Amino acid sequence: MSDPHPLAPKTPGWLDWCPDPSVPAFRLPPGAVDAHCHVFGPQADFPFAPERKYTPCDAGRQQLFALRDRLGFARNVVVQATCHGADNSAMVDAVRASGGRARGVATVRPDVTERELRELDAAGVRGVRFNFVRRLVDASPRDDLAVIAKKIAPLGWHIVLYFESADLPDLEDFFAALPAPLVIDHMGRPDVTRPVDGPEFRRFLRFVEANDVWVKVTCPERLSVGGPWAVDGERHAYTDVVPFARRVVEEFPDRVLWGTDWPHPNLTGHMPDDGLLVDHIPLFAVTADQQRRLLVDNPMRLYWPGETP
Ligand code: 0GY
After folding, report:
1. 82 within ligand 1 shell (Cβ under 6 A)
2. Catalytic positions
3. What is the residue with the minimal CA distance to atom 9 of ligand 1?
4. Model pLDDT, residue 226
5. pLDDT per residue over 26-36, tens digit each?
6. Residues 61-90 pLDDT 10s
7. DSSP letter string over the chain?
8. Atom of ligand 1 nearest to the CA of 218
9. Which of 57, 234, 262, 294 gives the lowest tally of CB atoms within 10 Å of its CB?
10. What ligand 1 atom has the least distance to the C-alpha of 83?
11. Sequence spans of domains, the chain
12. 136, 82 contact by CB (below 8 A)
C-alpha cells in the first residue's frame, strides 16, 4: 500500500546545514542569546505548509539545542520559517521543549483569535513576523497586516519585519504607523557593494533612528558578495558585511540583536560554518560592552524582561 502522506523531496540545489560546526574561538559572554534561528519539521511530525516556496531538509529542535550548546549560547529565539506557513506547531513545540530557554516569533493570519494568541503567548511567543520577501511568500495585503498588528499589540508583542532594501522606501510609512515595537531582520538586507555612507543605507539608519527600531545584525553569509573566503584564506570571513554591521552596532548599541539563522534556509552557494559565524561577531561588535549588549542585555530585555541572564 502506498504511503498516504509521502514526504516531500527537498528543493533541488538546496544546501543542508553544517553537520559539524567548529567550536568558535570567540568566547560568547555568559547568557548569550541566539536571537534568530528556525526549526524545519521534522517533516514526518510537522508537515510543511502547502503554500511554501521551498522544501527544506529536516532541522528539528534537538539539533537546534545541540547547536546552542556547542556554540555556547544560553537561549534561542525561534522564528517561524516560511516553509511552515501559519502553522506554528513545530516552532511552538521547540519553544515549549526548551524549558524556558527559548522564545518564539509566530506567523499568524488576520482571523487569528484572541484565545489563539493567548495560547501562543503562554507557550513563549513574543512577536509576529511580517515577510515581504517575494521569493519566500506571496504578498499579504497591508490591511491584513494592520489587523494582525492591532491584535498583537495589547500582548506587548513586537513585529519582526523581513524585506529587501530596495522596498524600504515603499514600506517605511506603513511600518512607521504599526502600533508595536519593530525588529528588522538582517539589517534590512543592504547591498554591501554600495557604500556604507551611501543614500540607501543612510535612509535605513535614519528610519531605524526615527522609529526606535531594533535591528538584527545577522546573516553575513546571505549579504556577503565576497563570501567566507574574503581575506587571504584567513578565518576572517564576510568582511564586506563588517562596515554595515559595525555602523549599526555603533549607532544603536541598545537596539541590536544577533542570531545564527540556523538552519540557513535557501542557501545554494555555500553553507556557513556556524562556529565561523560566531567568530565574525567581534569584527563588528568590537568592545566587550558592545558584545554584552548585543548578545545578552538587548535580547534579554526584548524576550525575557525582568529575568537575569
Ligand atoms: C531567514 C532568511 C530567509 C528565509 C526565511 O522563513 C524563511 O523561509 O526566513 C531567506 O531565504 O532569506 O531569515 O532565515
Report:
1. yes
2. 261
3. 81
4. 83
5. 999 999 999 99
6. 999 999 999 999 999 999 999 999 999 999
7. ---SSPPPPPPTTPPPPPSSPPPPSS-PPTT-EEEEE--B--TTTSPPPTT-S-----B-HHHHHHHHHHHT-SEEEEEPPGGGTT--HHHHHHHHHTTTSEEEEE---TT--HHHHHHHHHHTEEEEEEE--TTTSPPPPHHHHHHHHHHHGGGT-EEEEE--GGGHHHHHHHHHT-SS-EEEGGGG---TTS-TTSHHHHHHHHHHHHHT-EEE---HHHH-SSGGGTTTT-S---GGGHHHHHHHHHH-TTSEE----TT-TT--S----HHHHHHHHHHHS-SHHHHHIIIIIHHHHHHSTT---
8. 13
9. 234
10. 8
11. 33-303
12. yes
Say what the pLDDT of residue 232 is.
57
> Distance, CA 9 to ligand 1 centroid (Å)?
19
Is the distance from the beta carbon of residue 136 to the nearest atom of ligand 1 less than 6 Å? yes
Give domain 33-303's CATH architecture. Alpha-Beta Barrel (3.20)
| pLDDT tens-digit map of 191-236 | 999 999 999 999 999 999 999 999 999 999 999 998 876 455 555 6
Ligand 1, closest atom to CA 54?
A: 8
Rounded to two decimals, the pTM is 0.96
Half-sphere exposure of 94 (CA within 13 A, CB side): 33
261 touches ligand 1 (CB under 6 Å): yes
Give, for ligand 1, the residue of 82, 217, 224 to mutate: max count of ligand atoms closer than 8 Å to Cβ. 82
